[in-house]
Design brief:
The protein has 133 residues and is an alpha+beta fold. The strands form 2 sheets. Strands 1-6-5 form a 3-stranded antiparallel beta sheet, with helices on one face. The chain has helices spanning 22-30, 55-58, 68-74, 85-101, 127-130, and strands at 14-18, 39-42, 50-53, 79-81, 105-109, 112-116. It is elongated, with a radius of gyration of 18 Å.
């Protein structure tokens, strides 16, 4: 994008990045034998809630924030895990990727952040062209 009169309209473009199924996807990344299988992270106790469900578990009705006992009823065959340090490590890698798009990254959690695309380093298009990548 060439500097010019249109730059002002992109000064404050905030993108919200929310990594759907992040925790479950990390488990599948860490253990390839789990790929294609229903995976639930969190909700292991009767009072706990699901932090993340793989897309395979979602086919059985499991979703984030669902009570653990309901998730186990929906998908008793699902593999269940606690969130651990691997999730933190992968989140750091993802944050580094976000920082390649913008120096202004505000994390909300391990799997969610705001990026100021108006402050981005990349000159590979407008924020609306960069955001879907």
């Amino acid at each position: 994008m060439k500097p010019g009169k249109d730059d002002a309209r992109w000064e404050r473009v905030i993108a919200h990045a929310d990594m759907d199924a992040f925790y479950a996807s990390v488990e599948q990344l860490d253990n390839p034998a789990l790929r294609g299988l229903p995976v639930i992270v969190g909700g292991r106790s009767n009072r706990g809630v699901v932090t993340s469900a793989s897309y395979e578990a979602r086919k059985f009705g499991v979703r984030s924030a669902m009570p653990g006992y309901e998730a186990r009823d929906c998908a008793p065959m699902a593999f269940s895990f606690r969130a651990g340090w691997t999730h933190v490590e992968v989140s750091r890698v993802v944050r580094t990727c976000f920082e390649s798009f913008s120096p202004a990254v505000e994390p909300l959690s391990l799997d969610e952040a705001f990026l100021d695309l108006g402050a981005r380093r990349s000159c590979s298009g407008t924020p609306l062209e960069v955001a879907p990548r």
